[in-house]
Specification:
alpha/beta, eight-stranded mixed sheet
């Protein structure tokens, strides 16, 4: 039995991932961004061990979420599932003065990674749109570029792959990988999406728990349990390190080598 934390598990892919892992006999800790969402998560996955609460669009709440999560750990695996899409017609600025897509999709998993004890396995959800990402590390908050919501989303998903690969390099004792779940019929994916929830969750479940040699690897980009080639710049260690430096400057927390 593994103990697994899943962010953004009150609905969609995260909730299905949690339910699948509970059915397999694992100890699962859920996450909701507020008390109502946390209650929804717990009711939907009643076999879960606990639920933690925190809005990833707030650095203070993300820190408190890490504190709560640490009290229910330690973890064999952490699945960074939470994320928001790019449909906004203008940038949304959070209480921290940061662009919300970047903060939720990239900075929050960075901060949680830095604050929580290193698990045996880390899974960062990305998207096939990472292929369209552009690493504008000097303008993560979109202050000098015309706003493009879908580009901001694509950039954040590229950063997630870069984060997964950077952590794999810095923490050789942790298996750290990125997963494209596909275009899944969820509230974010919409009714026109091509794939169902089980397909969107299967690779995360496999990477978090399987002893198979294909699953016990690190620094890979997966879709449907197949290792694919990510955006070429995701492999650039200088870019990875610069992303980590920028995130450290914004959070005051550093992911140090182990």
């Amino acid at each position: 039995m593994a103990t697994i934390l899943i962010t953004g598990s009150s609905d969609g892919i995260g909730r299905h991932t949690a339910a699948t892992l509970v059915e397999q006999g694992h100890r699962v800790v859920l996450h909701g961004r507020n008390e109502r969402r946390a209650d929804e998560a717990y009711k939907a996955v009643p076999g879960a061990a606990a639920v933690v609460v925190g809005d990833l669009a707030s650095l203070a709440q993300t820190r408190d979420l890490a504190r709560q999560a640490a009290e229910t750990g330690p973890y064999d695996a952490v699945i960074h599932n939470a994320g928001i899409g790019g449909g906004q017609s203008a940038p949304v600025i959070t209480e921290d003065g940061l662009e919300r897509i970047f903060q939720v999709n990239t900075l929050a998993p960075y901060l949680l990674t830095a604050l929580l004890p290193a698990p045996d396995r880390l899974v960062y959800l990305t998207s096939g749109l990472e292929a369209n990402g552009r690493p504008h590390l000097d303008d993560l908050q979109w202050r000098s570029r015309p706003w493009n919501g879908m580009q901001a989303y694509s950039d954040s998903k590229l950063y997630d792959v870069m984060l997964a690969f950077a952590v794999a390099r810095l923490w050789p004792g942790t298996l750290s990988n990125a997963v494209d779940p596909g275009w899944i019929r969820t509230r974010m994916g919409g009714p026109g999406a091509t794939d169902d929830l089980p397909e969107g969750a299967e690779t995360q479940v496999w990477l978090a728990t399987s002893p198979e040699p294909q699953a016990t690897v690190t620094s890979h980009y997966f879709k449907r349990r197949q290792a694919l080639t990510a955006h070429p710049q995701a492999y650039d260690e200088d870019l990875q390190d610069e992303l980590l430096r920028r995130c450290a400057d914004l959070t005051g927390e550093t992911i140090t080598p182990r």
